Amino acid sequence: MTTALLSEVRTGAGDLSVWPASTTPLPQGGLAVGGVSLAEAAERFDTPLYLLDEGEVRRRCRTYRDAFPGTEVLYAAKAFLSRAMVRWVREEGLGLDVCSAGELELAVTAGFPPEHIVLHGNAKSPRDLAAALRLGVGRIVIDGPSEIARIAAAVGPGRRQKVMVRVVPGVSAGGHDKIRTGTEDQKFGLSLTDGGAQHAIARILGQPRLELTGLHCHIGSQVTDVKPYLVALRRLVGLMARVRDTHGLVLPELDMGGGHGVAYRPGEPALDPAALARRMRAELVRGCAAAGLAVPRLLIEPGRAVVGPAGVVLYRVLAVKHTGEKVFVAVDGGMSDNPRPALYGVRYAPRLVGRSSAAEPRTAMVVGRHCEAGDVLAADVELPGDVRPGDLLGVPVAGAYQLSMASGYNLVGRPAVVAVHGGSARVLVRRETLEDFRSRDVGA
Questions:
Q1: How far is CA 35 from CA 22, 237, 423, in A?
Q2: CA-based nearest residue to 8, from 310, 352, 349
Q3: How far is CA 185 from CA 166, 237, 255, 263, 343, in A?
Q4: What is the pLDDT of residues 170-198, one digit of tens each?
Q5: Is the dihedral of CA 400, 235, 128, 407 positive or negative?
Q6: In 10 A of CB 196, how many CB atoms?
Q7: How far apart are CA 358 and CA 366, in angstroms?
Q8: Which of 61, 99, 217, 371 is catalytic?
């Protein structure tokens, strides 16, 4: 790497700290990820385009597996799922957590062993439960009292289904109100404080076709501090002790969920898996010793932290508009391929990736092409003052909750997903086309 390129990487404009580890600067201001030039990928596959660095995904899977020995690490499929992702996760030794029959059946038909899959959901449909029981998922997480009888009735004669109970531990954590799930004022789980969780446990133990294996909680998403996990863990260990004292049952499993935060922009905090593992294990051992409990097997469910930083999205600039003091840089994507900024104010760090520029940076607002004033992809970001139509912008940390939450708004079509690794690129998910929309519209 030349001295000039090294200097650029160390400046704010060239900071690649939140990009995949394989990212390298190229001459004339370009970048490569996984050995593939971003400019060449954009020309070959068109834009908007999701790139997913296979090596980064696998490295992050191994980071979790190494940090949590003896723990069942389940990849949270809702972050992003494809057949290739299923294969990578399986080959790296992780389990899977799914939230629908669609996610479940894609995983199983792609070769994932169902006994290593956990099914979640606050409102599981009959199809969800039928698929879970037919395919033989490892565990179903019971989220509400009405599910107990429904699942028990659906289990065939002579069979038992392993279940867990999702407990609301009364812990507030997460990057935004809309992704905090550990408190009483949201739709998930059974309350620890009003006795809902204890009542559900008693009912489950009265169902001979259900086998209660443990407790589950999920305190929120984009959590960057270890402390809320420790508070939740202490409360769930206390409940496990009460289950032992009341029912004579020592639960063998404790699932602490996911929500592990990542940095979307340089300088932002991220949760350290090794620190989380060390402190969570110490708290679990201490709490169980104080309660006289055998230490249960721990489960965790990272999603964003595995796939988020492995993704990059590429956009082509369509227009640049100067309105008063504001500069609007409009691109060929928007809230249809990334609704997260509009939903809960996520902030990204786009950069010019197709050419070099000596122009002074200027604060700009990167906006999408959709008919909504809230279609803003990145507000108040520094871009070269000469940014112009035709330029290529890259946005890192785009692997999680973007394509999985994408929509068909304005019928622009969802982007393709391309895997990059070792200098080669291959399509994982093809671009959605106008023909796809026409074929689904069967009315006359």
A1: 7, 47, 4
A2: 352
A3: 15, 22, 21, 27, 19
A4: 886 554 444 444 456 667 789 888 889 99
A5: negative
A6: 18
A7: 20
A8: 371
Residue of 283, 292, 274 whose CA lies nearest to 254: 283
Handedness of CA 338, 343, 347, 352 (dihedral sign): positive
Residues 344/90, Cβ–Cβ less than 8 Å: no
Distance between CA 163 and CA 381 in Å, rounded?
Answer: 47
Backbone conformation region of residue 35, classed left if phi is above 0, alpha if psi is from -120 to 50, else beta:
left
Q: Tokens for 260, please give them.
A: 């592990």
CA 412, 264, 398, 9 torsion-angle sign: positive
Beta-carbon contacts of 193 under 8 Å, excluding residues fewer than 6 positions away, are 170, 184
Residue 217 annotated among the catalytic residues of the structure? no
Whole-model pTM over 0.85: yes
AA letter at 238: G
Residue appearing with tokens 């809902």: 196
CB-CB contact of 17 with 266 (8 Å) = yes
E runs forming strands in 217-356: 253-255, 297-300, 311-323, 326-331, 351-352
Other C-beta atoms closer than 10 Å to the C-beta of 208 total: 9
Is residue 183 within 8 Å of 168, Cβ to Cβ? yes
- How long, in residues, is the chain? 444
Nearest to 236 by CA among 283, 169, 181: 169
- Cα 248 to Cα 188: distance, rounded to the nearest angstrom: 27
Biggest CA-to-CA distance, the chain: 73
- Give the range among 7-11, 31-35, 269-273, 302-306 with minimum mean pLDDT: 7-11
Closest CA to 288 of 210, 214, 204: 214
- Distance, in Å, from the CA atom of 378 to the CA atom of 409, rounded to the nearest integer, reads 19
Q: Tens of pLDDT along 89-130?
A: 999 999 999 999 999 999 999 999 999 999 999 999 999 999
345 pLDDT higher than 50 = yes
Q: Name the residue among 311, 284, 328, 327 with its Cα closest to residue 416.
A: 311
Token pair recorded at residue 202: 């008693």
Tell me how far apart the alpha carbons of residues 78 and 97 are, in angstroms, rounded to a whole number. 8
Encoding tokens for residue 223?
């959590």
